[in-house]
Amino acid sequence: MITCVRHSSIRPLLRACALTALIGAQPLAHADGGGTFSLYDADRNGYLDRQEFDTFVASKRNRADIAEFWTFQRVDADGDGSVSAQEMVDALLADIRRRQP
Predict the structure, then answer these.
(1) DSSP summary character for residue 88
(2) Of all helices (H) and strands (E), which one includes residue 61?
(3) CA 63/CA 25 separation, integer angstroms
(4) DSSP string across 3-42
C-alpha cells in the first residue's frame, strides 16, 4: 500500500535525517567537537565560550526566532559557562523539532 505524504511534512523529516546522518558519520571528539562546531571553537578546546557562541549565533541572524531560542543560558544546559558539542547537538535537534509542523 502506498501512503500519500504531504510535501510540506517531508522537508523537516529530511532535515532531521540529514542532521542525524551527519552526526552519526562524524564522531564528536572532545578537541574538535565535530564538524560545524569546530568552526566556531576558535581556541580549539572542545567548548564554545560566550564569545565563540555569540559568533555562532551571529551566523544565524537571518532567522526571526533566533533571539528567544538561541540564548547562551538555554544552550549551556549544565550551566558551566561553556557550550559543549553535545549541548550544541541537543540544541540543534530541539530547534529542528520545534520548527516542525
Answers:
(1) H
(2) none
(3) 27
(4) PP--HHHHHHHHHHHHHHHHHHHS---TTT-STHHHHH-T
- Cβ burial 45-63 (10 Å sphere, 16+ → b, else e): ebbbbeebbeebbeeeeee
pTM of the full structure: 0.61
Q: Determine the 3-state secondary structure of 48 from DSSP.
A: strand
For residue 35, the Cα-to-chain-centroid distance in whole angstroms is 11
CA-wise closest residue to 88 among 13, 32, 43, 17? 32
> For 31-75, how does the pLDDT look when each residue is reduced to its tens digit (9 = 90+)?
444 467 888 999 999 999 999 999 988 887 776 667 677 889 999
62 phi and psi angles, rounded to 5 deg: -70, -10
Q: What domains are there in the chain, each with its CATH number? A: 28-99 (1.10.238.10)
What single-letter DSSP state applies at residue 84? E
pLDDT at 92 > cutoff 60:
yes
Give φ, ψ of 84 to 5 degrees: -85, 165
Note the residue count of the chain: 101
